[in-house]
Write a structure and sequence with these properties.
Length: 439
């Protein structure tokens, strides 16, 4: 069946689901396969639950007599082609966002600013991969005035695949840093893959929102029409910003085209969020959001999902940034934590994953920064930090090593930490968020 024919059936439905637990009357079920599941096995159940159609790629389970079953060669590829076709039919302006650090926060801030004035569609949570992006695109309807699509990558070609689905008119790369080097191979591999967003824009007459103070991004964006933003009067900025402080929440001021300055008090932890906020304001200014509404949207945004959150518990103050970690984000978090006003600072750090051959040196460099920081206590979780610590020949001192988060849980249960300000930072796979109930 041609994609146009599948699309016509999609339009008959009230939506599309890939989750057999969320099937219902009038939906289209698309049976995806993974290492541990096969949606084809649930096609009959989905139809019995009221789905109007089921798209599948297992010929052995296909019943040609049931017109509700749609057999295709590859359901994931069909999902992506269906989304790309939907994007072309609607023509809704799309803003694509990627980057090594800060892309989810920037996406959320952009949506906060834009939704103050327009009806927007925005990537939900972290649905930024080869499945999440097409599902987001298929959630667009004719009432949406703009779509803000986050795109993640861990291997070369990932962004190229996602831009062909989402077809952005505008693009924003927050930054490029050393992350997922196991997949990218090198920092140049990171730049090339993230730059696939710029490549799409160049080929299709798009425009980039560009941090003019970031030399890597400026170099990558050569030949592109750009809308510039940045800190401290960087050349070519339409939106200029200055940090006023982090006590502990970030406060900054900004102006548009050398106009009046606006002061914004945020609920964001970390000076590194200034560029994210300026990017969102830059997007808003391009599409006509008022300066007052943009400032208000940034002020009212409250982070979630363990990204730059300050939490006050019955026992401690926690700075939780445990969704992900790489050398650049870890360094920024440590620098910001060092500037926070607090008497007793404690670090709980988990390994930075997927760094390949650069892992040992990266953990060594971060550990050197930690040991020079004068923190009261340091808890390190994972073999990479442990290896770096032992290789440096350091005395244990105030540093405690744990092979895994379960060992640290036992330590905290036996020896509770109270009255401290604690930074919790590590790759999501180290599961540091499971410690939060003990803190």
């Amino acid at each position: 069946m041609e994609i146009q024919d599948i699309y016509s059936r999609f339009l008959e439905c009230g939506g599309l689901t890939t989750d057999s637990r969320k099937c219902g009357l009038g939906l289209m079920f698309l049976a995806l396969k993974g290492e541990r599941f096969d949606g084809n096995r649930f096609v009959k159940a989905a139809l019995e639950m009221g789905c109007s159609y089921a798209v599948m790629d297992d010929a052995g389970l296909y019943d040609a007599a049931d017109s509700r079953m749609i057999l295709v060669d590859d359901t994931l590829k069909t999902l992506q082609l269906l989304a790309a076709h939907h994007r072309r039919v609607l023509g809704t302006p799309v803003i694509g966002i990627t980057g090594t650090n800060g892309k989810t926060t920037t996406k959320e801030l952009c949506n906060a600013v834009m939704s103050s004035t327009f009806r927007t569609l925005c990537t939900s949570g972290n649905l930024n991969n080869s499945i999440g992006v097409p599902l987001t695109v298929l959630g667009m309807d004719r009432t949406h005035e703009y779509a803000i699509i986050e795109m993640g990558a861990s291997h070369p070609g990932d962004i190229d695949e996602l831009v062909r689905i989402s077809q952005p008119d505008y693009g924003l790369i927050t930054n490029v840093g050393m992350a997922h080097l196991l997949g990218f191979g090198s920092f140049e591999g990171v730049k090339k893959t993230k730059g696939e967003l710029y490549d799409w824009l160049r080929a299709h007459g798009g425009t980039a929102f560009l941090n003019m103070a970031d030399a890597n991004l400026v170099g990558m964006a050569q030949g592109l029409p750009v809308i510039g933003y940045g800190q401290d009067a960087a050349d070519g900025c339409q939106v200029e910003g200055r940090l006023l402080g982090c006590r502990p929440y970030m406060e900054f001021e900004w102006r548009y085209r050398n106009g009046a300055w606006h002061t914004v008090k945020t609920s964001l932890i970390g000076a590194y969020n200034l560029n994210n906020a300026l990017a969102a304001i830059s997007v808003g200014m391009r599409f006509g959001v008022s300066e007052a509404d943009a400032s208000k949207a940034i002020e009212e945004y409250v982070p979630s999902n363990n990204r730059s959150q300050l939490t006050v518990t019955d026992h401690n103050r926690l700075v939780v940034d445990a969704y992900n970690a790489n050398p650049s984000s870890m360094r920024a978090a440590l620098e910001n934590f060092g500037l926070m006003e607090a008497d007793s600072k404690v670090l709980i750090l988990g390994d930075m994953r997927e760094l390949g051959d650069s892992s040992a040196q990266a953990h060594h460099d971060i550990l050197s920064m930690v040991l020079a920081g004068g923190f009261e206590s340091v808890y390190l979780v994972g073999g990479e930090f442990a290896s770096a610590f032992r290789a440096m020949g350091c005395a244990a001192g105030n540093v405690m090593l744990f092979d895994n988060v379960e060992q640290l849980q036992e330590q905290l249960q036996a020896n509770p930490v109270e009255g401290r300000t604690i930074l919790v930072k590590g790759s999501n796979s180290t599961r540091l968020t499971t410690l939060l109930p003990l803190l």
